[in-house]
Amino acid sequence: MALLDDVRKVAGVADRLKGPVGNEANTKALLIEPMLSALGWDTTNLDHVLRDWPVRQDSSVDYALRIGEDNVMFVEARGVNESVDDDAFATKAIEGAHSEGVLWCVVTNGLVYRVYRTDEEVPTHDKLSFEVDLTKAAVGSPADTASVPLLSRASVSDGSLALWGEQKVFTDPRVRVVLAELAAKPSAAFLDAINEAIGERKVPRDRLRASLSRVLVVDTAGKPTPTTRTQEPPFKPRDTPAASVVTEPSADPAPAPEHTPVADAAPPAPVVPASEPEVRHEPPTPPAPPAQHTPGSVQADDTPDAAPSPETAAKRRFLGGAKGSRESSGHPAEGGQAAEGIDPYAPLSKLDDPFADS
User: Is the pLDDT of residue 106 over 90?
Assistant: First the structure.
């Protein structure tokens, strides 16, 4: 706000400089120097401002603005009632600055400031970085109000002025235009250069052309449309025609979703016939004590031909074996006899658990 107040004061003083009093001397003393001071260039400090700095043997510049030991900006002045629309006058000032290695040159009448970059290899009018009209800034013109601080000593010192010129005027706009033109009508060499940079995963030329028109934005008439990232519309998948969407494998394909190996999967539950009881799979247990027999009876395992006990019959029947196969056929073992009151061939569910501890 303080800088804007200074701009309004200078604009107010300029209204009084009419006729002969609007000469160059009064313009310097009452308009230019107060403005330079407001921008951080101390006109009373020789390390900031030098007046009538010699440029050539026969000429000098009105103000040489300095940072450290270097001149960084020349200012050439005219009377407030004179116009700055004089290419010959501007060209002389720009060439003088360039010959001294000074990057910036300002031509002003105290109200209008034209800022030129001297190292651009273009005609004088194309060296113009921007123009500030203090009369417009005083009444709130957004463009002029925003441009005034670019003339400050701090802006020149920290590179803000140079960066602004690169982004807005000199380099970035030219690059965008050229890239957009190449996108509209890419040459074979340009497409080959892109494929060379891509590497092994080459892209067919027709697809490269389509991609360039999307990435660099070319209008339907084929005219290049320079743009910046902030101007690009957000990507909306639903607005993209299905036919124009091309799915390509990425350079590093994503790994397949992890899954449990078949070997680690839980085994399916055993299918048990309806007529047979479920066979339980349990950890081995200590062998049960021999079953008690009535006097005169013989244990099934003592004699090969002895009749099996109910427990032995059940084990042979469900765990396999020669004797079990004979018993399952409905015939008792030779020379054997089933225990009284117990049918060894009855369903297991009707017997005591043969594997339970006695």
Answer: yes
Choice between 46 and 329, residue whose per-residue pLDDT is larger: 46
Are 56 and 102 members of one domain?
yes
In degrees and rounded to multiples of 5, residue 210 shows phi and psi of: -65, -40
Domain containing residue 23: 2-169
How many separate domains does the chain show? 3
209 Cβ partners below 8 Å, 6+ apart? 186, 191
The span from the CA of 27 to the CA of 23, in Å, is 6
Token pair 């004179």: residue: 82
Instruction: Answer whether residue 67 is part of any domain.
Output: yes
pLDDT in tens, 227-258: 333 333 332 333 333 333 333 444 444 554 45
Q: How far is Cα 191 from Cα 213, in angstroms, rounded to an integer?
A: 13
Within-domain flag for 162: yes
Residues 10 and 112: beta-carbon distance below 8 Å: no
Structural contact between residues 8 and 138, judged by C-beta atoms closer than 8 angstroms = yes
In the predicted model, what is the mean pLDDT of the chain? 75
Question: Which pLDDT band holds residue 181 (cuts at 50, 70, 90)?
Answer: confident
Reported confidence tier of residue 226, pLDDT bands at 50, 70, 90: very low
> Phi, psi (5° rounding) for residue 300?
-65, -35
Instruction: Give the model confidence (pLDDT) of 6-16 as tens digits.
Output: 999 999 999 99
| Residues contacting residue 17 through CB under 8 Å, at least 6 positions apart | 26, 27, 30, 31, 80, 81, 110
Give the chain's length.
358
Query: Is residue 88 in a domain?
Result: yes
User: Is 189 within a domain?
Assistant: yes
Give the count of alpha carbons within 13 A of 71, CB side only. Answer: 24
Mean pLDDT of 132-140: 96
Which two tokens mark 260?
A: 């449990």
Q: Which two tokens stand for residue 204?
A: 């067919």
Provide the β-strand partners of residue 56. Answer: 59
Q: Which residue type occupies 290? A: P
- The alpha carbon of 236 is separated from its chain's Cα centroid by a whole number of angstroms, namely 17
